[in-house]
Amino acid sequence: MVVQVKHNTNHSGKTMDGAQQKVEANILLLGAENVGKSALTVRFLTRRFIGEYGEIESIYNHNDKIDGRDISFNIWDSLYPQNCETTESITEKHLQWADGLILVYSICDRSSFEVVRQQVHRIKQAKKTSGVSPIIIVGNKRDLQHQRTVSSEEGRLLALSADCGFFEISAAEAYHGVLLVFHELFDLIREARALKKGGFKGIVRSMSAVFGRKRTE
Ligand SMILES: Nc1nc2c(ncn2[C@@H]2O[C@H](COP(=O)(O)OP(=O)(O)OP(=O)(O)O)[C@@H](O)[C@H]2O)c(=O)[nH]1
What does the record give under GO molecular function (predicted)? Predict the structure, then answer.
């Protein structure tokens, strides 16, 4: 059961001028407990790391600007359920809602890496016919190098084998890595939408929009 609390944040603090249509993207965060899903979400929403987050499952709304375009992110910070199998915790409802998924593990918790492996498998199986929404795998808690039990290489290989994006970050240490995760996922969602809409021409258009743009950071 989802407790749907809507929070609204806006990085720029500016009002919409109404001239351009806002693009919406539904992002679902999955992963084992205690890996930093809420930390990642709150970092993106507020640029801050507050340490403890409580156990509330929420959908947040957040307005951002990418390439001059207004984006409305709906971010579902899911709770990892205690009493069911890893794969059962991802329902059809989750998958239909999500335009893109972020699967989080902790680099110092091997079992959380295995949870992500199972979740990727489950998502790919469930969406075999209708097509999988883009996925980014995130190894969090990069600041805890001395406690690392999952190598970067393992994370990267899993992502490669499942056709997912991959980042290692520390939600505790920096905002920039978290921002990159969400922006990269948005680019992938944009490509997937273009592909659905316009076939090959659509993807070429979308890719040139991505590669042709100047990165400021
Ligand atoms: N050192 C370190 N600690 C982190 C990092 N991200 C989160 N944490 C800590 O890890 C703990 C769990 O973080 P949460 O964001 O609540 O994890 P969650 O995945 O949302 O957990 P559930 O609500 O149980 O699903 C908290 O004590 C955070 O302060 C990180 O990058 N580095």
Answer: G protein activity; GTP binding
Which of the four pLDDT bands, split at 50, 70 and 90, describes residue 87? low
Question: Residue 6 and residue 173: Cα distance in Å, rounded?
Answer: 26
The verdict on the CB of residue 174 being under 6 Å from ligand 1 is no
The alpha carbon torsion through 12, 186, 179, 114 (nearest 10 deg) reads: 150
pLDDT tens readout for residues 66-76? 888 899 999 99
Beta bridge partners of residue 138, listed in sequence order: 104, 167
Check if 81 has its Cβ closer than 6 Å to any atom of ligand 1.
no
- 163 close to ligand 1 (CB < 6 Angstrom): no
Between strands 58-66 and 69-77, the pairing is antiparallel
65 Cα–ligand 1 center, Å: 27
Distance of alpha carbon 99 from alpha carbon 188, whole angstroms: 10
